[in-house]
Structure formats: structure tokens, C-alpha cells
Amino acid sequence: MKSIMGYLFLGEVICCVLLALLSSFSMASDPSPVQDFCVAINDPKAAVFVNGKFCKDPMQATADDFFLSGLNIPGDTMNQVMSNVTPANVAQIPGLNTLGISMVRIDYAPYGLNPPHTHPRATEILVVLEGTLYVGFVTSNLNPGNKLFTKILHKGDVFVFPIGLIHFQFNVGKTNAVAIGALSSQNPGVITIANALFGSTPPINDDVLAKAFQIDNKMVDYLQSRFWTDNN
């Protein structure tokens, strides 16, 4: 009986130790970043941001800090990709700071495209308000490769794009389309793949892009010479 009680006591001790370790690990982990980077500095007099923004004295906050109007206004789709993204993030709504959410309105002309892009800091859930969209995302490397998930969405349909994965929306209808995207970050960021690779400043070395895409340097130069549209 004593040996059994001893084993039970030992088991309880081990469980307590494991719980304590797990608690310390969770408390020691870093919060998710909401900026592209934060360069460490030793000078405390230099500006320090909290979630990318300074915080207003809460006694000075007003209702306008949590308000935005204008998402009923269609965005200008007169550009190369024929789409427009109107953001509603912490830059437009200061009260979103530290709350971890934001949204966008996306307008598409007929056959307009929101080009392949990623949000490095957010999962996106999209709902179609008008029109018909062909949407999809590509997984990270799986065996045997990157898997594509696609769907045709109609008015009222909803689709999720997991955080950090390349995704797109294409208006396959003959009329304008509108969608609302909700994102799990106050500042989700956006990396449009074509713009980032062929429109960066300064340009990525031709040899790097030529080998990556298995094309010649002249084609790289041609693509880099194109005017890359920012639809955000």
C-alpha cells in the first residue's frame, strides 16, 4: 500500500512540474509581430512603439478613434489589375491598436484580379457581397509539392485564406464584384508576389531571378521594366 501511495504522490509531483514548465514556456514566448521588423537599440530616448503605434491617454480617447466611414464607396479599379483594396486597419482606425483585427473592402472590375499575395501577419476570411469570384490559396511545401485550393464564390459565400499563404481573387463574371475581407491583425501587411520580386527597390539581381524562374536575363529585365501597380 505504501509503495502504491508513493507512486501516486510521485505522479502528482511530476504532473505539477510539467504544468509549471508549460506555464513558464507560454509566458516566455514572444507576442506575434505586427511590424515587418523592429531593430533593437540601446538608447532609451529613441522612439519606442507599442504594437507599431504610440498609445493615447485613454482619458483623451473619443468615439471617433473607433470610427471610419466610406466603405460604402467603390474603390477605383482603373489600373492594370482592375481591382482596388480599401483598408480599414489601425492606420485608418486608431482604436484598433492592440485589438488584433482589421478589414478591407475589395472592388473588382469585370475580369479584375487581386493578384497573388500574402499577409505575413494575418489569416483572412472573405465574404462576397456582389459578383462571382474565383479564389484560391497555395500551401507551403508539402510532399510532393505546393497544393492549390480553389473555389468559385457567389454572393454570400465565404472563404478562408490561412495566415502567410499565397492567395488571390479573380472576378470571373461580366459585372463588377465586391467583397469584404476580415483579417486577424490590426496591421496584416501585404506582399504582392510579382511586385516584390520584379518591382523591388533596388532591383533583385538578374541572375537570381533568372535562375529562380528558369528564364533568361533579358526576360528578367523586361519584367522589371514593367510598371507595377499597387492596388492597395
From TrEMBL:
Could you tell me the superkingdom of the organism this chain comes from?
Eukaryota
PANTHER family in alphabetical order? GERMIN-LIKE PROTEIN SUBFAMILY 3 MEMBER 3 (PTHR31238)
Q: Give compartment(s).
A: Secreted, Extracellular space, Apoplast
The Cupin type-1 domain covers which part of the protein? Answer: 83-221
Descriptive protein name:
Germin-like protein
Bilayer-crossing residues are: none
Which cystines does this chain contain? 38-55
A Pfam family the protein falls into: Cupin_1
SUPFAM superfamilies with a match to the protein in the record: RmlC-like cupins
- A GO molecular-function annotation: manganese ion binding
Span of the signal peptide: 1-28
Q: Which protein family is it in?
A: Belongs to the germin family.
- UniProt feature coiled coil, ranges: none
User: What does the entry list as the binding residues for Mn(2+)?
Assistant: 117, 119, 124, 167
The organism encoding this protein is Macleaya cordata
Question: Which keywords appear in this protein's UniProt record, sorted alphabetically?
Answer: Apoplast, Disulfide bond, Manganese, Metal-binding, Secreted, Signal
What does UniProt give as GO cellular component? apoplast
Annotated residues that bind oxalate are located at 114, 119, 124
